[in-house]
Design goal:
The complex is a heterodimer of chains A (about 525) and B (about 250).
Chain A: H1 8-31, E1 32-34, H2 35-44, H3 57-67, H4 75-86, H5 90-98, H6 112-144, E2 151-156, H7 161-174, E3 178-181, H8 209-226, E4 231-235, H9 241-250, E5 255-257, H10 260-266, H11 271-288, E6 291-293, H12 299-302, H13 309-325, E7 333-334, E8 336-338, H14 348-362, E9 369-371, H15 381-397, E10 402-404, H16 417-433, H17 437-440, H18 448-470, H19 472-477, E11 497-499, H20 507-512
Parallel strand pairs in A: 2-3, 2-10, 3-4, 4-5, 5-6, 6-7, 8-9, 9-10
Antiparallel strand pairs in A: 1-11
Helix pairs in contact in A: 1-11, 1-13, 1-18, 2-3, 2-9, 3-5, 4-6, 7-8, 7-16, 9-11, 10-11, 13-18, 14-15, 14-18, 15-16
Chain B: E1 21-28, H1 34-46, E2 49-59, E3 65-73, H2 94-105, E4 109-115, H3 123-129, E5 146-150, H4 157-166, E6 171-175, H5 183-197, E7 205-209, H6 215-221, E8 225-227, H7 233-246
Parallel strand pairs in B: 4-5, 4-6, 6-7, 7-8
Antiparallel strand pairs in B: 1-3, 2-3
Helix pairs in contact in B: 2-7
Classes of the chains: A alpha/beta (about 525), B alpha/beta (about 250).
Chain lengths: ~525, ~250
Amino acid sequence: MSKLNLDFNLVAEARKSAKVIADDIQLMIDQHTTVAVERTVVRLLGIDGVDDIERPLPNVIVDEIKDKGGLSMGLAYWIGNAMIETGKTPQEIAEAVAAGELDLMQLNQNDALKVQAVVTEKAKEMVAIIANNRKDRDAYLERLGEGPKPYLYLIVATGNIYEDVLQAQAAARQGADVIAVIRTTGQSLLDFVPYGPTTEGFGGTYATQENFKIMRKALDEVGEEIGRYIRLCNYCSGLCMPEIAAMGAFERLDVMLNDALYGILFRDINMQRTLIDQYFSRIINGFAGVIINTGEDNYLTTADAVEEAHTVLTSQFINEQFALNAGLPEEQMGLGHCFEMNPNIENGFLMELAQAQMAREIFPDAPLKYMPPTKYMTGNIFKGHVQNTLFNAVSIMTNQGIQLLGMLTEAIHTPFLQDRALSIENAKYVFSNMKDLGSEIEFKKDGIIQKRAQEVLNDSVKMLKEIEEEGLTNSIAKGKFAEVKRTMTSGKGLEGVVKKDDKYFNPFIELMLGGQ
Amino acid sequence: MSSQVDLTKVKPYGDTLNDGRMQFSFTLPVPFGDEADEAAKQLLIKMGIEEPSIVYSEDLGVGYTFFTAYGKCQHTVDYSSIEVPKVDVEIMDKYGVEDFIKEHIKRDVVIVGACTGTDAHTVGIDAIMNMKGFDGHYGLERYHGIEAINMGSQVPNEELIAKAIELNADAIVVSQVVTQKDVHILNLTNMIELIEAEGLRDKIILICGGPRINHELAKELGYDAGFGPKTYAEHVASFVVNQIVDRNMI
């Protein structure tokens, strides 16, 4: 039953518009591939490592095929063909290409169906590894259990993966359920994924497969010790979106930030590039049982949280359809929103409550990701701690899924060990002390809270109708989200987009689309 | 109360003048227990704190301990001799700036801004440049007589300078939010070097800002002004329009 007296016919209308919007983009996605998608295919076929000048082998091999004009066929064809011709494994093939001993496009070209059969067999082996990781996670959850929702989500960001481990284990012992390793500033714009363990970073730590592995092991260890499965989160965004998804699937990450709209608006990544990349990354995340987090909260760090609240809901509707198209179920959709209104607004808490409850009712099965105040955190750590307390109160009253804990030192520095402890203490206190408040209270009919939610829903339905008419890409070009304008051909990474050949083939889409 | 204060010997105030009372919170990398509390106490004594009292301590879970403590500071400072470099200009509001431009400059003022280097945070530059502004203070885009171009985040210094040249800008505004390992200092210094190499240093007003930036640091690095927390578009605008007149850039 709706506490907000929402009109669910309007919700259905909104979903219908969002589906038209997402399906329109899907037509473009289906006709193209990208360098990142193809690097992901080769990673999924087992290719990893770097050449003698530290270039990742997936980049070496994909760039070579691209330069010679073969990318439109897809890397699966070229690798499969080379497997037939040379009898080598994909990794051996990549090493031979990097050494300049093998030119994939000079080999005799086998019939597409024959190549597909060979490469699909290899792909099935690799997909089984990911399916097993998913089973391992389920087994851990069965055996160790997990914290209650909202999961307490904490960030580590020292730049040094070994220091991150110390901080992450401390946070887990204090009560964290999800540990996110923030990436170093600027990684989203790298068109390759660095290799190996790293100990230097700015504002965060490089996402590398080895760093994933180190942190996974540390969290499994501490999980055993405290008797609770600790989820690991990273950032499946930027120019290497699907590659990070593949690496995360191999190393059993549990949560991934994954949102093309975020990259378009806030990292100026070309929209074609990142929407195509997002599709494949969500297929992988869906199959691997990874909860994605979308970045709608960011709209309100630039635009006004009161006036632009409907853009968050609008984007959640669209993100839901993108996820469904990639076979990612609602239970894995950590749709994002936030507590970012100016604290000086009278009754601001009521509006925050309305927004959070509305998201809960419209997306009942989604583990909503709720983000803390950042924009109006001032350096007054004492008030900041109170702001975070109100944020926690909204969350427990509206049954959010993933609570990104606010830090009293937000806007000052990356969190100290003690900042995290204080945040966890705050959240645990509020979540326990107010546990069932949400199910005990109803909102006054046509009161401030109900009216606010209805108004935001109405505005969102209207906005979705407009986008349905003019298309998502034109709407973004007009600055409808976060007041940021981007066009189809602006932004980084467009040169990595290629139209698919009729014979294009990617075995992983068929093997992974739609979960297990 | 203030009449009793000796400004040449100022010390913290708790509830009685010159009681020196201060609060502390910090972590030591030692296991929770009596020895940890003693270690914290000794540290405070070394810091010049008399009668330190550890009022709360907590095990942080990795053999480290967090403390809340109070004590009496024995040091004093001479407030009467303090001089802090500040942006020396009278701050006008939006309308004041607009009138000033109409009256004294009589053309559009062009300001180009970006968050440069690898820094991906747009929050600072947006607060100054965007129409909306921040916390009720409109941004430069909304000012009549100011053409404000916000290039966003992760903009290379070279690109920002190129844009300023292209538009014949009066001022460049650089935002830096990430300060880990002093990355902002490196980047701000690099900007100055590039500007000087282009021979533009005297022809353009150069401003930086961010949560950890102040005017003193900015001047030291070679900028005309630096703006820290609690400064808004009107501060930047007031400075720029006055500089245009003072430096005869009309």
